[in-house]
Amino acid sequence: MASGPTPPRHMPGARILRTEPAPAVWVPLLDQQLREQRVWGFELGDDWPPSFVAEARFKGWPVIAYTVNDEPTMRSLIEMGVTAIETDDPKLLLRVKRELGVR
């Protein structure tokens, strides 16, 4: 049996995010291991490797970046294709998304 997070008992609908650093290489068994661990997606702060984000999104895994408060990084992450960005400056993020034509 695979090790990893156990399903939430008190919050059965809660989504589990993998918060470890992105793996350098997407190994063939990663999808299976993540499903066995009931992982919903990735939450990455500080390091968002473009190749990892592209591969995760291609395979249907959400990628959430945190905590991003500067415009250049927001723009880069949006262009990279992250699913969501956590920020302390939502007005800035909304402006950047609007300028880039992203909903």
Write the layout of secondary structure elements.
Elements: E1 16-18, H1 30-36, E2 39-45, H2 50-58, E3 63-66, H3 71-80, E4 84-85, H4 90-100
Parallel strand pairs: 1-2, 2-3, 3-4
CATH superfamily: Phosphatidylinositol (PI) phosphodiesterase
Number of domains: 1
Roughly how many Å apart are the termini? 40 Å
Number of strands: 4
How large is the share of residues in beta strands? 15-25%
User: Can you count the helices?
Assistant: 4
**Mean pLDDT across every amino acid position:** 88
H-E string? EHEHEHEH
Radius of gyration: 15 Å
Helical residue percent band: 25-40%
- Given as residue ranges, the uncertain stretches (5+ residues, pLDDT < 50) are none
CATH class: Alpha Beta
CATH architectural category: Alpha-Beta Barrel
CATH topology: TIM Barrel
Sheet/helix structural class: alpha/beta
Shape: globular
Main β-sheet, spatial strand arrangement: 1-2-3-4
Largest sheet: 4 strands, parallel
